[in-house]
Amino acid sequence: MNNFLRNKHSAVTAPASSVMQQQAQPFAPDARWMKRAVYLPLVMPIILFLVSLYSRPTMYFDSGSGFLVLRSMLQGAAFNTSIVPDPANIANDVATFESWWSPGQYLVPGAFVWLGSDYGLALALTALISTIIGLIGWAQVARSFAVTPFVLLVFMYGLATFRYTTLPFRIYNGGELLLFAAAPWCLLWLRWAVDKPPVVCFAVSLLSVALLFVVKLTGLVVFAATVLAIGAIEVMRQRRLPFPILAMLAASGAAAISFMVFWVGRGAVPAGGSGIAVTWRAILFPISATAFSGVATNDLLSWLLLHPPASILSDAGVISYILGPLGLLLLFWFWIRLRTTRYRPMAICLLTIIALYTAAFVAMYSQGAAISFEERNLRYTGILSFLLLLVALDQWRPLAGRLFR
User: Fold this and answer.
1) Distance (Å, rounded) from C-alpha 357 to C-alpha 226?
2) What is the C-alpha separation between 235 and 282, in angstroms, rounded?
């Protein structure tokens, strides 16, 4: 009789618990669906590529100068050298080493041209491949910090639809596009290499700095800020200078010497300056671009403020006086919001990179470097700030965040 009652009780209570589980399941989407949804934004560059096949991309002046070098090289000139008529005697030619821009902006599409493609298709293919590689790379960066599926999904959809990722399919911007593709992977490689033997760390560091240099000269600042941040964090964590960090610094020193001898020694670069002149614009603009360029804020404001009464506000320098202090407060809020969570190591790593990278541009602007006041120059830290913003907002656990957990 007791066994019969126990069995009867379990038969009654079991369905009740299963009903509760079934009721809870709709609030937690299938993990397999989430994995597929994260990469749905990759459809966007494919669609834009198909459109660009009908209306081929154009190019900026900077990229156009690079393609003049490519044409000279295809006609037999030395590497990264353009051949132009001598102004003093057009019967002669003058060979000029192009040190102002990195060679990646024309080498990547130039490979498609060399294979027989026309220039328009080469630019479209470069935009497609670089955008997809960059989106996957940034997704892996977010995954490496164990962000929630909701944050990862919004992060990917944002990157795939912001103007700086869709513009290259209409206007090829060279280095900015290639740096978007290379920067996240180099960040992953350097963070991975710090726990490997010194030889591996040295090789990975050299590979990273070479890749970042080829895609854009700003990539050297990306590399320097990342290496210094990773090194400082490891020294503070281990209370000593580990051998992998020494190897990473040795690779950085070798890269710096090679760059000065074989590149700067042959021509001028934008980072050069004539003197120190610290201004509020030189300080506030890098801060505002770091905090807001990841969501293309300046592009949005410039579009919204096109009417003549507000035309003065569409200037990046004027906007920075407003967004600079707000950006500084926003970066500080990231730390306050994340310092007591499991994302504290992530906040320390990314905010250190952001601080070093921004300080480097403040220094270059203050010494009169020929670098434009455009947020594209600080897009790398802008994307890192965008990721921190999503993680910080997710700590409030809004309804949408709970549904995607």
Assistant:
1) 8
2) 31
Would you say 213 and 348 are in contact if contact means Cβ atoms under 8 Å apart? no
**Average model confidence (pLDDT) for the chain?**
84
The domains of the chain are located at: 270-405
If you search the block for the tokens 């660009």, which residue do you land on? Answer: 52
Residue 47: predicted pLDDT: 94
* Gyration radius from the chain CA atoms: 25
- Within 8 A by CB and 6+ apart from 363, the residues are none
- φ and ψ of 307, to 5 deg: -70, 145
Cβ(204)–Cβ(193) under 8 Å?
yes
337 vs 347: CA distance, rounded Å:
9
**Which of 256, 248, 257 minimizes the C-alpha distance to 228?**
248
Dihedrals phi, psi of 82, to nearest 5 degrees: -105, 145
Q: How far is CA 402 from CA 29, 148, 399, in A?
A: 10, 10, 5
Q: What is the pTM assigned to this prediction?
A: 0.86
Buried b (16+ CB within 10 A) or exposed e, 108-127: bbbebbeeebebbbbbbbbb
What span, in angstroms and rounded, lies between the C-alpha atoms of 152 and 361? 29
d(CA 105, CA 217): 11
Please give the Cα distance from 330 to 379 (Å, whole number): 16
How many whole angstroms separate alpha carbon 291 and alpha carbon 285?
10
* Amino acid at site 365: Y
Widest CA span in the chain: 114
Reading the block at residue 168, the tokens are 């290259």
Which tokens sit at 38?
């994260």
Of 381 and 275, the structure prediction assigns the larger pLDDT to 381
Residues with Cβ within 8 Å of 43's Cβ and at least 6 positions away in sequence, in order, are none
End-to-end, the C-alpha distance of the chain in Å comes to 46
User: CA-CA distance, 54 to 393, in Å (whole number)?
Assistant: 40
Q: Give the separation between CA 391 and CA 143, rounded to whole angstroms.
A: 12
Single-letter residue type at 16:
A
User: Confidence band (pLDDT; 50, 70, 90) for 89?
Assistant: confident
Q: How far apart are CA 310 and CA 312, in angstroms?
A: 5
Per-residue pLDDT at 242 exceeds 70: yes
Is residue 218 classed as helix, strand or coil in its secondary structure? coil
- Beta strand extents in 23-64 (DSSP E only): 58-59
What CA–CA distance (Å, rounded) separates 219 from 70? 21
